[in-house]
Amino acid sequence: MSDIQQVPAVLLLEDGTVFHGLSAGKIGTTTGEICFNTGMTGYQEIFTDPSYYGQLMVLTNAHIGNYGTKRTESESYSIKINGLICKNYTYEYHRPLADQSIQAYFEEENLVGICNIDTRAVVRHIRSKGAMNAIISSEETDLDALKARLAEVPSMDGLELASKVSTKETYTFGSPQAKYRVAVLDFGIKQNILNNFAERDCYLQVFPAQTPIEELRAWNPDGYFLSNGPGDPAPMAYAVSTAKAILEEDKPLFGICLGHQLLALAVDIPTYKMHHGHRGINHPVKNLATGKCEITSQNHGFGVSPEAIEANTDKVEVTHINLNDGTIEGMRIRGKKAFSVQYHPEASPGPHDARYLFDEFVKLMEN
Amino acid sequence: MPKDQSIKSVLILGSGPIVIGQACEFDYSGSQASRSLREEGIEVTLINDNPATIMTDPVTADHVYLLPLTTESIIQVLEEKQIDAVLPTMGGQTALNLAIEADEQGIWEKYNTRLIGVDIAAIELTENREAFRKHMIDIGLSVAPSKIANSFLEGKDAAQHIGFPLVIRPSYTLGGTGGGFVHKPEDFDPALRRGLSMSPTHEVLVEKAVLGWKEFELELLRDANDNVVIICTVENLDPMGIHTGDSITVAPAMTLSDTAYQRMRDEAIQAMRSLGNFSGGCNIQFSLNPETEELIVIEINPRVSRSSALASKATGYPIAKIAAKLAIGYTLDELKNQITQNTSAYFEPTLDYVIVKMPRWNFDKFQGSDHELGLQMKSVGEVMGIGRTFLEALQKACQSLENNRMGLGADMKEWIKTTDILERLEKASEDRIFRLKDALRLGVPEKTIQKLTRIDPWFIKQIKQLVKMEQQLMRYNVAEDIPADFMRELKTVGYSDAQIAWVMRIQEEEVATYRKKLNIRRTYKMVDTCAAEFEAQTPYFYSTFDQENESIPSEGKKKVIVLGSGPNRIGQGIEFDYCCVHGLLAIKEAGYEAIMINCNPETVSTDFDMADKLYFEPVFWEHLEEIMELEKPEGVIVQLGGQTALKMAETLHAKGYKIIGTSFPNMDLAEDRGAFSDLLKELGIPYPEYGVANDADEALQIAKRTGYPALVRPSYVLGGQRMRIVINDEELEKHVLSIFKHLPDNRVLIDHFLDRAKEAEIDAICDGDEVHIMGIMEHIEPAGIHSGDSSAVLPTYSLSVEAINKMVEYAEKLAKALDIRGLINIQFAIKDDQVYVIEANPRASRTTPFIAKAYQVPYLKIATKIMLGTHKLKDFDIKPRPSGYAIKVPVFSFNKFPNVDKNLGPEMKSTGEAIRFIKDLSDPFFRELDKQRYMYLTR
């Protein structure tokens, strides 16, 4: 029984698999790489996370939209996913602190989605077949036409997307009187990373992805930060060379997610495209130095090669591993003040277990 | 940190007889813990005097002590067994209190053993309301403003400071006993007196009432390395003010944003880490102000709780099993996720479905009780519905309740008077969720409903969808008018065919037939802890109406379905879980695939590794039928799940499905009073004069014939519901009218009541050729007290040899005449050495587990194999090992219902039972019980 206009919609995967549902959000057509997130809270944070740029997001939680949306809970100024795929699109929300319904938000942001989908079947499909491109349409139902359109969508493998979501202009964040100055390279940074730095007495200058190292140095930072972001790190030669230059300078350097992968590339450790990535807020990570564990928020489709790290233990030290599949979750560059993690210590959405990493970075700047 | 190698033997403390607030969820946790420790090569000893539990079965533990939970018993165990460590966190508050008591007496130290999985200082801190409050404030968390009072005057003073409405919470009590809301100053004094007297330390906390705030519960696990994970977050649909055990609860949380949730998670972890040093489970309750999202801590239970059992079933994550391993030294990252087997146990389960837990109340058993829900738990059991939408889960929970509801309303049980409905919305009782929908249906604004119930508008809006759908549905005349899309939509939100039929005033069969024609069928999804991110092998399924079916029936192996007994309630409880578990084990041993269907999250039989396949579904025809059509089993066992399962026999038979064991016509013969009496007459077995009446006139006629006193009851009820003894026409008329008022469409049975008679019962197994008498129990209390409320002595202690021989003779005759294949329970009355048969139940009875425990014979397994036909009685070498007498002692929960008549009668009131072994009749415990018998006789 819908009180909003909902029309039949279709989800077509690259391998020809079709799911039928109803439109959610704006009526239209959208494409992207399909991926899934298993978190049970934080849909708005996911929609606005620049790391998801260009992706079609399957949310596995049974109901999406229950608590509406709230402007201050966005991770960037706009929706970054290309489309939403969910089971129950619950546009009738309730939360006194919320600003608007998910439907109003999607219409404002022109997001196309599809609901009443057996999301569990979709996840099981991706789990076995791997990540692939897909198309959602609530205006075109002819499968051949959709297939043709889907064929034009480029593969995520080898796709550089960071510069599309990076800031165009340099800007500052936090108090100029703060104790530390951090130069942030923005590949699609999440708002909450900035907040976490600012809360720790850091003044930030956020630079566009392709800013030359000289410009960063000219600001005279106490430390550098390589942000998260979308796409494949492999084609990002510009960022890798900046990372190399930072390493030479030997100032504290911290990288998150894409930033972690770029740091690996900077020490000649290759990355690879994962079968279907890690996306959710319940991923178990063990800190090898302390032996303690943390539940982490994750969002990545590429990873750092464990074999290459194994062969380069003189250069890098693995600091964190994933307890589910043993993948590399964190590393430290030997002889440098540089470290990085594959997951999201800033969370949002997700648990705050790993926020100590921001403290460790600040400590490095203090010394 | 790996396993502590110094621990080679562990004693687990059970929770004793079932009482309100402490039910069979602790059998579930104790059994899991025991199996988990035995996996590690640890010798497990168990102490619990509840004979109906699986934990006290040889299949679960190495050594079982069926002893009362007292320090004397503990000393006995420690004298006889070398115990390296004691695990007290699996047996609820009873076990914890016992552990503390033994600790204070220096028993653990004396016997050179230690407690694991617990920190006594931490328990003290969480139980002592004032210390807890201070501690929370010290670590920077918020609590509701409150003051402690140790006397009446201090209490009055506190109330003046806090203001009304306020809450009285007695220290150290179970399930909120003695606590309550006080809205007006004039109600304060009696409430305070009661609170002070209920607390063993005469201490209450007078707390500001945060009425209308939302309530959440988090289930946590912590290991020795201080790693903490949240296993489940549960949202209470009923806001603050109603005990969580009496609240409808939902997982995952439906109305929590990530910011609010993560704050809650941070605080929960901080609180747990601040509580001493222990490894294991913990439950934390929070309250959230919906307007500001301000958060306060309500309470912490540093042990496995009722909610942990629910959380385990809701997520698939076996909390007690893991908690037991943490207690012996493992850390979470060293353990595997038991469901996927290849990912880590250190993780937080994620759900791609919704579960709704609904409590089951039994107010009808407690005449005169206050039905209003509050801080003190009053429900006797619970059910869980799983679905892919909140509404589907909610309606499945309603279908599971065994209240003759077809879902959330739309089943001719709606109320239509707005004033009555509004009153029930404000004063929450067992039917509030149904009344909420009634109100919406009658057009009461959502806002008004929210104001009265303080239920989050999100839930109200969801239920409103049902009302709108029913309005549309009413426009159709015949099933074929319903558009396919709309039919699918109806099923997606949990409507049963029967509800759809009722709304349209057509037959259920028409809806079912058309729905199947449209191929709108249930598919089954797995509960896998990870929203399908990883592959899981665990065969734990629920139904929904989604595209892909994950439950692929196995090929080659013959399958047998066991029907469970639904929610625990008075008259039907944990004993049937015991029966189902043994049935499953026997089915597997006999070479079949064992499939379990039940909806009670507290049970062991719904543990994911008990059956070969588990369908967590309502024991409700439509759900059963779809499973039958998918699995195509050899047949269904209905003898093990109490009356709930037995009730399904008729439909199964009518639809041509095979019932394993005694055939339906024979079971029906035993259940149908008229036909059964004819059979008794034919067999020459005496029975009390009786008659069946359709109205009060007929009843009076019959009474004239049978004579007074007469036993009056509705036909087809459980646990003697509305059964009364009347002594004259006036009383008879009054009671018959009351039965027709509350149970229309019923008939009334009138039996001549054998005053001052003795009662006895036999449980027996019959294979068609032979009859084996499992045991003969003599009730201490005279006839007229419900058998469930009687103290039953095994074997008989005062009946003559002639009477016993007659009982055995009648039992054998009846079992053969009814062609019983499996179990039968027969109840007798003995007066002046004349033996009368009162009734026969062609199924496992409440006492079967008791006899199995007392005689140490796996009777349920034997009976199941006989039902299957794979074995005959002669295949078993049954050697009962009696030792003196065993007494089944009923246990009551009257302290939850202060105004209820505590006198026993034909209607069952006990919630649980204990077993006591005595050497001979000079035992003081027996003599005390026997003395009370005469009190009943003179009454």
UniProtKB/TrEMBL annotation, chain A:
SMART domains: CPSase_sm_chain (SM01097)
Pfam families: CPSase_sm_chain, GATase
Active site annotation, chain numbering: 257, 344, 346
InterPro entries on file: Anth_synth/Amidotransfase, CarbamoylP_synth_ssu, CarbamoylP_synth_ssu_N, CarbP_synth_ssu_N_sf, Class_I_gatase-like, CPSase_GATase1, GATASE
EC primary class: ligase
Molecular functions per Gene Ontology: ATP binding; carbamoyl-phosphate synthase (glutamine-hydrolyzing) activity; glutaminase activity
Keyword terms, alphabetized: Amino-acid biosynthesis, Arginine biosynthesis, ATP-binding, Glutamine amidotransferase, Ligase, Nucleotide-binding, Pyrimidine biosynthesis
GO terms of biological process kind: 'de novo' pyrimidine nucleobase biosynthetic process; 'de novo' UMP biosynthetic process; glutamine metabolic process; L-arginine biosynthetic process
UniProt-annotated stretches for the region CPSase: 1-180
Reaction catalysis annotation: L-glutamine + H2O = L-glutamate + NH4(+); hydrogencarbonate + L-glutamine + 2 ATP + H2O = carbamoyl phosphate + L-glutamate + 2 ADP + phosphate + 2 H(+)
Binding site for L-glutamine: 51, 229, 231, 258, 261, 299, 301-302
EC number: 6.3.5.5
Residue ranges occupied by any Carbamoyl-phosphate synthase small subunit N-terminal domain in the UniProt entry: 7-137
Pathway it works in: Amino-acid biosynthesis; L-arginine biosynthesis; carbamoyl phosphate from bicarbonate: step 1/1; Pyrimidine metabolism; UMP biosynthesis via de novo pathway; (S)-dihydroorotate from bicarbonate: step 1/3
Function: Small subunit of the glutamine-dependent carbamoyl phosphate synthetase (CPSase). CPSase catalyzes the formation of carbamoyl phosphate from the ammonia moiety of glutamine, carbonate, and phosphate donated by ATP, constituting the first step of 2 biosynthetic pathways, one leading to arginine and/or urea and the other to pyrimidine nucleotides. The small subunit (glutamine amidotransferase) binds and cleaves glutamine to supply the large subunit with the substrate ammonia.
Similarity comment: Belongs to the CarA family.
Subunit-level organization: Composed of two chains; the small (or glutamine) chain promotes the hydrolysis of glutamine to ammonia, which is used by the large (or ammonia) chain to synthesize carbamoyl phosphate. Tetramer of heterodimers (alpha,beta)4.
Protein name, UniProt field: Carbamoyl phosphate synthase small chain
Organism per entry: Phaeodactylibacter luteus
Lineage of the organism: Bacteria, Pseudomonadati, Bacteroidota, Saprospiria, Saprospirales
From TrEMBL, chain B:
Keyword terms of this UniProt record: Amino-acid biosynthesis, Arginine biosynthesis, ATP-binding, Ligase, Magnesium, Manganese, Metal-binding, Nucleotide-binding, Pyrimidine biosynthesis, Repeat
Annotated GO biological process: glutamine metabolic process; L-arginine biosynthetic process; pyrimidine nucleotide biosynthetic process
Gene Ontology molecular-function annotations: ATP binding; carbamoyl-phosphate synthase (ammonia) activity; carbamoyl-phosphate synthase (glutamine-hydrolyzing) activity; metal ion binding
EC annotation from Swiss-Prot or TrEMBL: 6.3.5.5
UniProt cofactor(s): Mn(2+)
Top EC category: ligase
Residues in ATP-grasp domain copies: 133-328, 677-868
PROSITE patterns linked to this entry: ATP_GRASP, CPSASE_1, CPSASE_2, PROKAR_LIPOPROTEIN
Pathway assigned to this chain's UniProt record: Amino-acid biosynthesis; L-arginine biosynthesis; carbamoyl phosphate from bicarbonate: step 1/1; Pyrimidine metabolism; UMP biosynthesis via de novo pathway; (S)-dihydroorotate from bicarbonate: step 1/3
Catalytic reaction annotation: hydrogencarbonate + NH4(+) + 2 ATP = carbamoyl phosphate + 2 ADP + phosphate + 2 H(+); hydrogencarbonate + L-glutamine + 2 ATP + H2O = carbamoyl phosphate + L-glutamate + 2 ADP + phosphate + 2 H(+)
Pfam families, sorted: CPSase_L_D1, CPSase_L_D2, CPSase_L_D3
Subunit structure: Composed of two chains; the small (or glutamine) chain promotes the hydrolysis of glutamine to ammonia, which is used by the large (or ammonia) chain to synthesize carbamoyl phosphate. Tetramer of heterodimers (alpha,beta)4.
Family: Belongs to the CarB family.
Purpose of the protein: Large subunit of the glutamine-dependent carbamoyl phosphate synthetase (CPSase). CPSase catalyzes the formation of carbamoyl phosphate from the ammonia moiety of glutamine, carbonate, and phosphate donated by ATP, constituting the first step of 2 biosynthetic pathways, one leading to arginine and/or urea and the other to pyrimidine nucleotides.
Record-given protein name: Carbamoyl-phosphate synthase large subunit
Phylogenetic classification of the source organism: Bacteria, Pseudomonadati, Bacteroidota, Saprospiria, Saprospirales
Gene name as annotated: carB
